[in-house]
């Protein structure tokens, strides 16, 4: 790592740092708003290898502090985006221009899909379905959703999700395993 | 060690584990470890053990009041509730006591390696709160260490496990049953990244509870045989307490264990006492304690969004996991036997040593400036991870403050004969780690250029290391640890309610901001009470302390709005900063910890 390369990197860190408060969580993790959970995880892991404070104990200031600030925002973004429920609420807030997850605002919003289910078994199956989707396992997701319906009855939200799944299932074959390909 | 391998050190007598016992002599001299433990019966009032259970706890709290009578020494509340003991007319906080243990370990490590040991990684139970972590850090500093990291024990265990593991992605559960606490942690290991998915624990459940169950049965038997309570002879009482622990340990290997004493002088009489316990009786007396741990496991699995079948490996940590009944039930619960080649007593220390090495001599993104490099990287990759676990009094509770200390000064390994290799040079570790993002990785995404850090040269740990040192590559790339905060950090609001600020299982470091406004005209201070826990009411949580915003500009109520940023760092330690939103000026903040 010669000095020129460090300077180039330091410049990029500076720009990222300056842009922190005008970036969405998706931009901070460099992922697409439609990316499944698995892609978000990988992105966060990849950036953790580069930006975790443990890797920068001896990085000169001010780069070190800037990296620290960026990484803190990444953990914040990741914590929201990796949780299906928080992510849904974040997305809703994002439409109103809220770049950071606002707990007080979110608490005032209507219940999440999972919370709206009363039957505990249905909640579990719903959760399993959400996880299956993030793995790219649409068949498994559909099965779990049907089981959720069997326990709770067909709520509008479950119905909507099932329909969305069926629509996606008909898509290109590569689409069923978003994680094994690319990157 | 100079070859980059972690090794467990031993003391000159050959003990690999140092009991966390401190005995203070009348002349003020301090004994630590085995020699202190020998004084448990001789001088119980001045010999302190199990102190880790109370470090960082506010002794003014009702829930901790039992400490005053549970031990032969008295723990009382010092300033701000700091747990304090008295010995020969002098007061020592438990932070002082922990500092004595760490100072002793430092000396031992220096003797064993022949090198100065200026830095340490100190491990704590995953469910330690902020005050417990802060006081542990202070103890390390008091012992003369630069504390590189307060590391969670299960995370350390995962690191040690990582040395031996094959490649691929794995989900592991670390079931950590120590002397004073229980916790369970789920991690996902993916190449170079170890991510803690969730952790949870029960701070009131520990190996000591098993001892107490046995002791209760012994006391009952004694009463039945003699009509007297063993309390009436203090020394005997203490011997019986130690015997209870011994019986617990012995029943891990044997089917029956016992305790016999003849001619006990008690209440003016001389009596004989005989006690025997079978493993079956032990299981019956303690089964529910084991089962309590699975309530925690259920919860942690739920928080990690994991099912039991998605767990690839179960690792046991802590001496309590030697109990056969526990292993049986863990196997039944997890639907698989735990990994048995891991030493529950020492795995945490090894992990700490590995992490210490990675912090000091391991991968870093950028080289040091030339002037500093001369001094520091001289040790660099040659720095030696070494581990020495400390443990609570007795044979099973392997916890307390194991410290991995990487000596900085290079040099040929003098004085290494005391060392014991505990791990075969691992062969499976050099798996092709997930390579950091390649420039092409970001191509498909609409990323604002300013944030496209990943498009920069991918710095592989090994590459950096070899470039900067000009020597052979570092032994192996250390994984990056993504750890979490174990408890929700909150503040007290009106009516004794708690408003959560940073949720438990958030990755650290992390920060959250909140606005606070004055509620009275001319108000110049705001006091914010900070707590940790999952309760909705402040009374159900641990109050960490009070933050005071001072010197606010006077004005009508509501006109002064202060933005407070709460942060939890990689040690799991909380701090706060405040800014006056109108002036943008930093606001002074004073933090008083309760119990620390």
Explain this structure to me?
The complex is a heterodimer of chains A (183) and B (596). Chain A is mainly alpha-helical and 183 residues long. Chain A folds into two domains: 101 residues, Helix Hairpins (Orthogonal Bundle), CATH 1.10.287.110; 63 residues, no CATH class. In chain A, 67% of the residues lie in helices and 0% in strands. Chain A contains ten helices and no strands. In chain A, helix 1 packs across helix 4. Chain A is elongated, with a radius of gyration of 19 Å. In chain B, strands 1-17-19-9-10 form a five-stranded mixed beta sheet. A five-stranded mixed beta sheet of chain B has the order 16-11-12-13-20. By secondary structure, chain B is α+β, with helices and mostly antiparallel strands. In chain B, helix 7 packs across helix 8. Chains A and B meet through helix 1, helix 3 and helix 4 of A and helix 13, strand 20 and strand 23 of B.
Keywords:
heterodimer; A: mainly alpha; Helix Hairpins; 2 domains; 10 helices; 67% helix; elongated; disordered C terminus; B: 596 residues; alpha+beta; Nucleotidyltransferase, domain 5; Substrate Binding Domain Of DNAk, Chain A, domain 1; 26% strand; globular
Task: Put the structure in a nutshell.
The complex is a heterodimer of chains A (183) and B (596). With 183 residues, chain A is an all-alpha fold. Chain A has helices at 3-19, 25-29, 37-51, 63-81, 84-95, 103-107, 113-116, 120-135, 138-152, 156-169.
Q: Largest interface, by Cβ-Cβ below 8 angstroms: which chains and how many residues each? A: A-B, 49 and 54 residues
The total beta strand count of chain B reads: 29
Secondary structure class of chain A reads mainly alpha
What are the segments of chain A in which pLDDT stays under 50 over at least 5 consecutive residues?
171-183
> Helix share of residues of chain A?
55-70%
Going by helix content, strand content and strand pairing, the class of chain B is alpha+beta
CATH fold node name of the largest domain in chain B: Nucleotidyltransferase, domain 5
CATH superfamily of the largest domain in chain B: ATPase, nucleotide binding domain
């Amino acid at each position: 790592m010669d000095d020129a390369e460090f300077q180039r990197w330091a410049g990029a860190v500076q720009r990222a740092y300056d842009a922190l408060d005008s970036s969405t969580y998706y931009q901070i993790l460099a992922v697409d708003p439609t990316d499944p959970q698995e892609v978000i995880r990988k992105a966060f892991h990849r950036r953790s290898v580069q930006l975790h404070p443990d890797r920068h104990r001896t990085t000169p200031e001010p780069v070190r502090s800037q990296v620290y600030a960026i990484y803190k925002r990444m953990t914040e973004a990741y914590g929201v985006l990796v949780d299906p429920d928080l992510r849904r609420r974040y997305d809703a807030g994002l439409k109103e221009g809220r770049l950071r997850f606002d707990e007080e605002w979110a608490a005032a919003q209507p219940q999440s899909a999972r919370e709206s289910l009363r039957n505990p078994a249905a909640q579990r199956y719903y959760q399993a379905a959400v996880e299956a989707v993030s793995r790219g396992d649409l068949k498994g997701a559909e099965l779990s959703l049907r089981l959720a319906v069997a326990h709770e009855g067909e709520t509008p939200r479950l119905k909507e999700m099932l329909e969305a799944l069926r629509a996606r299932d008909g898509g290109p074959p590569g689409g069923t395993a978003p994680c094994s390909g690319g990157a | 060690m100079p070859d980059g391998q972690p090794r467990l050190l031993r003391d000159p007598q050959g003990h690999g584990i140092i009991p966390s016992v401190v005995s203070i002599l009348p002349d003020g001299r301090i004994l630590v470890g085995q020699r202190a433990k020998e004084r448990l019966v001789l001088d119980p009032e001045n010999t302190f053990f199990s102190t880790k259970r109370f470090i960082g706890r506010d002794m003014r709290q009702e829930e901790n009041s039992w400490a005053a009578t549970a031990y032969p020494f008295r723990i009382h509340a010092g300033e701000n509730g700091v747990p304090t003991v008295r010995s020969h007319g002098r007061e020592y906080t438990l932070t002082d006591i922990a500092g004595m243990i760490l100072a002793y370990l430092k000396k031992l490590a220096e003797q064993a390696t022949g090198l100065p040991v200026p830095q340490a990684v100190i491990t704590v139970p995953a469910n330690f709160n902020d005050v417990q972590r802060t006081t542990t850090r202070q103890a390390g500093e008091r012992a003369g260490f630069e504390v590189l990291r307060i590391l969670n024990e299960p995370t350390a265990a995962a690191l040690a496990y990582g040395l031996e593991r094959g490649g691929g992605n794995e989900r592991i559960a670390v079931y950590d049953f120590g002397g004073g606490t229980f916790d369970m942690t789920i991690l996902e290991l993916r190449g170079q990244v170890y991510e803690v998915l969730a952790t949870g624990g029960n701070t009131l459940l520990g190996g000591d509870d098993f001892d107490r169950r046995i002791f209760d049965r012994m006391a009952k038997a004694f009463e039945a045989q003699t009509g007297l309570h063993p309390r009436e002879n203090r020394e005997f009482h203490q011997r019986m307490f130690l015997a209870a622990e011994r019986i617990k340990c012995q029943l891990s290997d044997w089917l029956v264990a016992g305790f016999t004493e003849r001619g006990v002088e008690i209440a003016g009489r001389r009596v004989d006492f005989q006690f025997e316990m079978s493993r079956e009786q032990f299981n019956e007396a303690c089964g529910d304690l084991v089962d309590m741990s699975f309530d925690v496991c259920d919860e942690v699995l739920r928080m990690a969004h994991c099912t039991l079948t998605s767990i690839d490996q179960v690792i046991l940590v802590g001496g309590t996991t030697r109990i056969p009944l526990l292993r049986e039930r863990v196997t039944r619960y997890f639907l698989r036997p735990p990994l048995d080649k891991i030493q529950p007593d020492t795995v945490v220390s090894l992990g700490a040593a590995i992490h210490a090495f990675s912090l000091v001599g391991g991968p870093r993104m950028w080289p040091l400036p030339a002037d500093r490099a001369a001094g520091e990287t001289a040790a660099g990759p040659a720095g030696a991870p070494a581990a020495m676990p400390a443990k609570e009094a007795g044979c099973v509770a392997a916890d307390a403050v194991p410290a991995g200390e990487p000596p900085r000064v290079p040099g040929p390994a003098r004085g290494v004969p005391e060392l014991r290799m505990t791990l075969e040079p691992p062969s499976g570790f050099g798996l092709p780690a997930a390579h950091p993002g390649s420039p092409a990785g970001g191509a498909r995404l609409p990323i604002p250029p300013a944030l496209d850090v990943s498009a920069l040269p991918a710095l592989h740990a090994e590459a950096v290391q070899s470039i900067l040192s000009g020597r052979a590559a570092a032994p192996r790339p250390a994984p990056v640890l993504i750890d979490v905060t174990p408890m929700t950090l909150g503040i007290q609001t009106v009516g004794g309610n708690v408003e959560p600020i940073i949720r438990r299982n958030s990755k650290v470091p992390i920060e959250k901001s909140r606005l606070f406004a004055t509620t009275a005209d001319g108000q110049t201070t705001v006091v914010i009470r900070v707590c940790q826990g999952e309760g909705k009411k402040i009374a159900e949580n641990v109050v960490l302390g009070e933050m005071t915003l001072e010197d606010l500009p006077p004005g009508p109520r509501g006109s002064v709005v202060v933005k407070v940023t709460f942060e939890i760092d990689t040690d799991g330690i909380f701090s706060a900063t405040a800014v006056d939103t109108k002036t943008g000026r930093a606001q002074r903040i004073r933090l008083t910890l309760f119990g620390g």
